Amino acid sequence: MIKESLRLQAIKAMDHSYSPYSQKQVGAAIELSNGKTYTGCNIENSSYGGTVCAERVAVWKALSEEGPGVEIISVVVATDATPPWSPCGICRQVINEFASKNCEIHLVNKTGDVKSFTHQELLPHGFDRSALQKS
Ligand code: THU
C-alpha cells in the first residue's frame, strides 16, 4: 500500500531534476525499515553516460547518510508520464541490493495514477550476493 506522504515526496523531488537533454523530470522517494525517507531526482550529463536516475540518487543518499545496513521497504518513482515510468534495469538491480524481502515499488504520475509491484516482480530471478557466497 503506497503511503501518501512518500508519494508526495517523490512528486516534489521531480522539481529538482536536472534534465536539459531529455526534458523528462523524474523523482524518487524511498522509505527505509528504520522509518527514514530519502528522495532523489534524475541528474543528466552532457556525456549522456554520466546521467544518473532518480532512484539511484535516492539510494546513494540513503547509503551515504546511514551506512551499508540500510534496508529499503518502499520505493516511489514519479514522472509526468502516462502510464507512469518503471525503473530501468540498472535501478532495479541497485534497489534489489538493499531491498527488504517484500519491498514495494510504486509507479506514480502527477495525474494520480499508481501502479504497485514488489521488487521481485520487477526483477524476477535477480542476481544477488547469494550467488557470490556459493561460488
Ligand atoms: N530516468 C530515471 O530517472 N529513472 C528511470 O528509472 C528511468 C529513466 C531518467 C534518466 C534520464 O534522465 C531520463 O529519465 C530519460 O531516460
Following the backbone from N to C, one meets helices and strands in this order, namely HEEHEHEEHH
Name the poorly predicted regions: none
CA-to-CA gap between the ends? Answer: 37 Å
**Strand line-up across the major sheet:** 2-1-3-4-5
Total helical segments:
5
| CATH top level label | Alpha Beta
- CATH-defined superfamily: Cytidine Deaminase, domain 2
State mean pLDDT (0 to 100 scale).
97
Total tally of structural domains: 1
User: Do you know the CATH topology?
Assistant: Cytidine Deaminase, domain 2
List the helices and strands and how they pair.
Elements: H1 4-13, E1 27-32, E2 37-41, H2 54-66, E3 72-79, H3 89-98, E4 99-109, E5 114-118, H4 119-122, H5 129-134
Bound molecules: tetrahydrodeoxyuridine.
Key phrases:
alpha+beta, five-stranded mixed beta sheet, globular, binds tetrahydrodeoxyuridine
Structural notes for this entry:
The protein is of the alpha+beta class. The protein has a single domain, classed as Cytidine Deaminase, domain 2 (3-Layer(aba) Sandwich). The chain is 32% helix and 26% strand. It has helices at 4-13, 54-66, 89-98, 119-122, 129-134, and strands at 27-32, 37-41, 72-79, 99-109, 114-118. It has a five-stranded mixed sheet with strand order 2-1-3-4-5. The longest helix has 13 residues, at 54-66. The radius of gyration is 14 Å and the shape is globular. The mean pLDDT is 97.
Entry summary:
With 135 residues, the chain is α+β, with helices and mostly antiparallel strands. The chain has helices at residues 4-13, 54-66, 89-98, 119-122, 129-134; strands spanning 27-32, 37-41, 72-79, 99-109, 114-118. The chain has a 5-stranded mixed β-sheet.
